[in-house]
Design the sequence.
């Protein structure tokens, strides 16, 4: 044992190893703060100047490739920017509503065509609206109410014509008229003509003898069922003179029918005041300066009015001094037709009247403003009176306050555009006048243009006060138009 201890040297290290403080056989001391000495040279941080020099060297070495790459990147950026701007560019609603084609050169209904129409719908497309051909007449005879009001309008026209004949010294020279005779087309007696239902419209096909039935073909007779031919030559039927009575005939839609005190032929108590105001202004027996009649049907569009005029509401012999046309708002607000389509429809009506009555004056009434803002705001006036349309949040008229049949968008830019083109057309055509009703229904304030809410019964139709001021302005304009005639 002594030898072994001496051989391994245990006896010599007993005093060198400190005694353990625990009973564990082995503990390893860990010093995490220890860092080995660095090997090799230390890594220096590169400066900004070094990077600039590197890039400069790269450009110098590969200058051709860099130039081509930069040019390509610029071209791609420009193309992308233009593409994005084209899809997302902001166009003023007033600019978007402008009509590109010029119709001032139109001289007859045959000059009006559909080929120039850029888009059919007011939203800028061709599929979101219910537009019919504005140049073709179209009836709504499937509606019994519409048919009844159309018949009532024909009665109004016939009554006015009969009155003119009765007041004329040469009434009996008007071929076919016989007092006391009833052709049984309309209820009542002493109403129209000897030679059958349609003789008042002109000569078209077969003669008709009320006592003998259907006759043979006669180009100078009319059975009342065919399509009228050309107007008879002078002398066949006497034309009423301007000095014999009717001054103005108002034709149009529901706004015109208000003057009759009805809506789709049904009497409305809220329209009684409007009818009374109209009667006092346009009935000489009631103290009016002029004699006039009104023929309107609620909901009618331009081609509906065109059909009515061609089928009884513009009978031959009814020659007022002025035809006052108020139509087009339903094409825009109910059908959703574009500004150009609406314009074409109105011009087609005007040309039809001028074709049948070349000596009469046609006045086109401007489209009235439509309320879309609770405060009546129509547009903002920016710097230098720049037109600024309503923002989406400003089109805050509740949907229940608007008819479900009408479009719930801001239509003032479209109305302004149509009226502008109508004014241009009238200024270049003899016998056509334009009447701008904005001076009555629109007021300009410091911040914009507003619809006069106290003159409106609803977003579209004037109330009694509105009609009263409107009639006064019309009367003043009629004096100006007819003073030299």
Sequence:
């Amino acid at each position: 044992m002594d030898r072994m201890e001496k051989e391994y040297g245990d006896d010599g290290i007993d005093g060198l190893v400190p005694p353990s403080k625990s009973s564990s056989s082995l503990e390893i001391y860990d010093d995490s703060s220890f860092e080995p000495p660095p090997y090799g040279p230390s890594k220096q941080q590169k400066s900004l100047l070094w990077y600039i020099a590197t890039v400069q060297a790269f450009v110098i070495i590969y200058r051709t490739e860099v130039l081509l790459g930069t040019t390509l990147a610029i071209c791609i950026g420009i193309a992308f920017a233009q593409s994005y701007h084209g899809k997302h560019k902001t166009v003023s609603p007033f600019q978007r509503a402008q009509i590109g084609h010029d119709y001032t050169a139109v001289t007859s209904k045959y000059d009006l065509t559909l080929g120039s129409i850029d888009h059919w719908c007011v939203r800028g497309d061709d599929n979101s609206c219910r537009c019919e051909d504005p140049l073709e007449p179209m009836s709504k005879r499937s509606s019994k109410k519409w048919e009844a009001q159309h018949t009532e309008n024909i009665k109004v026209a016939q009554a006015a014509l009969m009155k003119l004949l009765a007041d004329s010294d040469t009434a009996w020279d008007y071929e076919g008229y016989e007092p006391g005779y009833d052709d049984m087309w309309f209820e009542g007696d002493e109403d129209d003509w000897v030679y059958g239902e349609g003789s008042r419209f002109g000569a078209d096909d077969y003669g008709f003898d009320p006592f003998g039935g259907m006759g043979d073909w006669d180009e100078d007779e009319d059975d009342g069922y065919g399509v009228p031919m050309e107007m008879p030559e002078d002398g066949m039927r006497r034309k009423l003179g301007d000095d014999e009575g009717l001054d103005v005939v108002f034709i149009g839609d529901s706004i015109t029918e208000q003057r009759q005190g009805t809506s789709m032929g049904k009497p409305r108590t809220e329209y009684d005041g409007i009818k009374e105001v109209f009667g006092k202004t346009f009935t000489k027996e009631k103290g009016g300066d002029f004699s006039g009649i009104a023929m309107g049907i609620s909901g009618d569009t331009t081609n509906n009015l065109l059909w009515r005029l061609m089928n009884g509401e513009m009978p031959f012999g009814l020659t007022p001094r002025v035809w006052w046309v108020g139509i087009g708002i339903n094409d825009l607000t109910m059908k959703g037709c574009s500004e150009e389509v609406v314009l074409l429809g109105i011009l087609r009506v005007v040309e039809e009247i001028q074709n049948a009555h070349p000596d009469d004056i046609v006045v086109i009434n401007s489209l009235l403003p439509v309320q879309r803002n609770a405060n009546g705001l129509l547009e903002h006036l920016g710097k230098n009176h720049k037109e600024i349309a309503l923002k989406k949040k400003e089109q805050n008229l509740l949907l229940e306050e608007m008819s479900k049949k009408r479009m719930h968008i801001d239509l003032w830019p479209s109305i302004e555009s149509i009226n502008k083109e109508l004014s241009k057309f009238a200024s270049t055509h003899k016998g056509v006048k334009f009447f701008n009703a904005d001076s009555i229904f629109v007021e300009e304030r410091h911040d914009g243009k507003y619809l006069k809410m106290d003159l409106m019964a609803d977003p579209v139709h004037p109330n009694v006060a509105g009609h009263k001021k409107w009639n006064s302005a019309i009367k003043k304009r009629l004096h100006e138009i007819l003073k030299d005639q």
